[in-house]
Design brief:
By secondary structure, this protein is of the alpha/beta class. It contains nine helices and eight strands.
Length: 266
């Protein structure tokens, strides 16, 4: 498995510095938070996009994916959501990133069946454009569709190879789902896996990997047992928790922890 980290852990850090951290600490890739607060977002010009792609290539680091904020199950107009996803897909294509992350974002005023249908309709439409660009849309286990079983309801309706799943291990755990069950649900569609650690269900402040309660050992074990060889991406949510320790000082230990889990699982 290859290792990456998300720029959510280093809010606003210039791309040159992000890539320097990746190379210094042995991470193969970087997940880019695609938000206007960050150096890389859909508002970049063609020249700026080419410069970003060139920086990644020069550093020998892969742009794993774009962590976008489109909410595909949210109530409202389809066209606006699909346009947001298309903008992310265009940027991913220009940067050479294989994946775009979207959230479910279903509303409390919807039934589960309605939210599933809305998400599937929008993803199915966006999938055709994604196929043209060679980029894959990944629905993250998050908010209204927290577990693998939840996400699978949508992905089963979509039935398109360009639409898959991003397994956020915190959310499936918070949803009460065992790693083996999450993997069983998501494996036919799995793009990559976001790892992290927290103190408890009531305190989700990010911690160094291995310092909290999330079942990272079990996650790596089940992935290894099934011969899965994709990406593990550390999503350290520093942007939302100002009191959390700075990520750069934790990257070496995080990589060592993941390497140890991979070795033990093998």
């Amino acid at each position: 498995m290859k290792l990456a980290f998300s720029t959510l852990g280093v809010p606003g850090l210039p791309l040159t510095d992000v890539l320097g951290l990746a190379t210094a600490y042995g991470y193969h890739g970087v997940e880019l938070r695609a938000h206007p607060e960050e150096p890389v977002h859909p508002g970049l010009t063609p020249g700026e996009r080419a410069a970003v792609a060139a920086e990644f290539k020069a550093a020998g680091v892969e742009p794993l994916g774009l962590a976008g904020y489109a909410r595909v199950a949210a109530p409202g107009d389809d066209d606006a959501v699909i346009a947001e996803v298309r903008d992310l897909l265009d940027l991913a294509r220009d940067l050479g990133a294989p994946y775009v992350r979207v959230f479910p974002g279903g509303g409390t005023e919807q039934s589960a069946e309605e939210a599933d249908a809305v998400a599937a309709r929008r993803l199915g439409t966006a999938a055709e454009y994604a196929a043209e660009l060679g980029v894959r849309i990944l629905l993250e286990t998050h908010d209204s569709h927290r577990t693998g079983a939840d996400a699978m309801r949508v992905l089963g309706l979509v039935g398109h190879l360009q639409v898959g799943a991003l397994w956020d291990v915190m959310h499936t755990w918070l949803g009460g789902e065992q790693p083996s069950d999450s993997y069983a649900a998501l494996s036919p569609h799995l793009g990559y896996v976001q790892v992290k650690d927290i103190a408890s269900a009531d305190d989700t402040t990010p911690l160094p990997l291995g310092a909290g309660v999330l079942p990272l050992t079990e996650v790596v074990d089940v992935l290894s047992r099934h011969g899965w060889d994709g990406w593990l991406c550390w999503e350290y949510e520093k942007r939302w928790y100002e009191s959390a320790a700075p990520l750069p000082g934790l990257l070496a230990g995080g990589r060592e922890h993941l390497a140890r889990l991979l070795t033990d699982a093998a």
